[in-house]
Amino acid sequence: MTKLAEILVVEDDADHLELTVEALRDAGVSNPIRSAHTLVEARSYLAECTARASGAGLPCLILLDLRLTDGLGTDILHEVRQDPNLRLIPVVILTNCDDTDTIRDAYYRGANSYLVKPMAFSEFRRRVRELGLYWAIINHTCEPANTA
User: Fold this and answer.
1) CA-CA distance, 63 to 56, in Å (whole number)?
2) In contact, 93 and 113? CB cutoff 8 Å
3) FRET label pair with 111: which of 26, 42, 66, 74, CA 20 to 30 Å apart?
4) pTM score, two decimals?
5) How far apart are CA 126 and CA 110, in angstroms?
6) Total number of domains constituting the chain
């Protein structure tokens, strides 16, 4: 049986993280979920992934909050898009910010999708379920070409 790739959720709010994981599970997403609460944790996890032989074990999806306690999620987004081993991983912004310039900047930096967290719990769960169904189950990803 093929091992499912992990989903990395970069979120510093424990309640939002819990709701996101619950909604993904409610959608039938059974991929292992790895969380990072800071940019430092996210960088460390991604460095571990790329250090493994042939890049095996890369996450199949990164759900990224923009406003983290130690910086901006767009910094990680930029780093992912610059790394030849990581650049093909879909990155979905999941944040409270609905500012047009911020949304535009995220897309310019390489976001695959941008979702604004709604205030209502039921709507948040619905959006994350739909997001999980598409990005973790329906969407097909590929590993980077072996450049060795």
Assistant:
1) 19
2) yes
3) 26
4) 0.86
5) 25
6) 1
- The DSSP call for residue 133 is I
* 1 lies in some domain: no
Shortest CA distance to 86 belongs to which of 116, 70, 64, 115?
64
Q: How far is CA 134 from CA 36, 39, 72, 98, 139, in A?
A: 22, 25, 25, 22, 6
Q: In this structure, is residue 12 part of a structural domain?
A: yes
Contact (CB, 8 A) for 29 and 139: no
The amino acid occupying position 105 is D
* pLDDT tens for each residue of the chain, 148 residues long: 567 789 999 999 999 899 889 888 888 888 899 999 999 999 999 999 888 755 568 898 999 999 999 999 999 999 999 999 899 999 999 988 999 999 999 999 999 999 888 777 788 777 777 776 666 656 666 665 554 4
Q: Which of 57, 120, 68, 69 is nearest to 93 (CA)?
A: 68
Cα–Cα distance measured from residue 136 to residue 101, given in angstroms and rounded to the nearest whole number: 28
Stated length of the chain:
148
Instruction: Determine, yes or no, domain membership for 52.
Output: yes
- Residue 124 in any domain: the answer is yes
Location of structure tokens 């979920």: 33
